[in-house]
Amino acid sequence: MTKPTKRIRITGGEFRGRYIRADIGVGTHPMGDRPRLGLMNSLMARGVIAGANVLDAFAGTGALGLEALSRGAARCDFIERYGLGCKVISDNITTLGVSDRARVIHSDVRIWGEEYHEAPKYDLILADPPYDNPQFSTVFLLTKALKQNGLMVLSYPGRVCEPKPNNGVVVVDDLCYGEATLALYRKM
Known about the structure:
The protein is an alpha/beta fold. Helix content is about 25%, strand content about 30%. The mean pLDDT is about 90.
């Protein structure tokens, strides 16, 4: 008997209602439907997603980046350190038919952030690190890849103090959904 595949539903946009794979192990906490929907609605209201270049860091299943692509993002790069996660993201990209707008980067986010020396190119960075190891210093390494006036979203457990930004990045909003808190940072 085969184990059933865990799935996550895309909550809006072009792929609304479609399911993607989420069977990547117990160390991952894919963001639930309610916080994902609330986040994406907030980003859409701010005019951030349409035509954006997006980075989904700590991508896991790729759900956040795929939600952005579903809502009109131009491109999305997904950073995931585990091979199984990369395979699941690649399968999800193929399932939704967005291979021409997506790229999977098999890397640890800290290593990628330390080695990033290109000009800032992302309009939106989605960072959803493991709740048992939020890695705030790693998350803020990503800001050098963020364009001027770009937005970075950090998901972290609400029981943890809000991380203070640096390098010209300021908090513009906080959204709370049960245990999850989403901090929105803008690069000035």
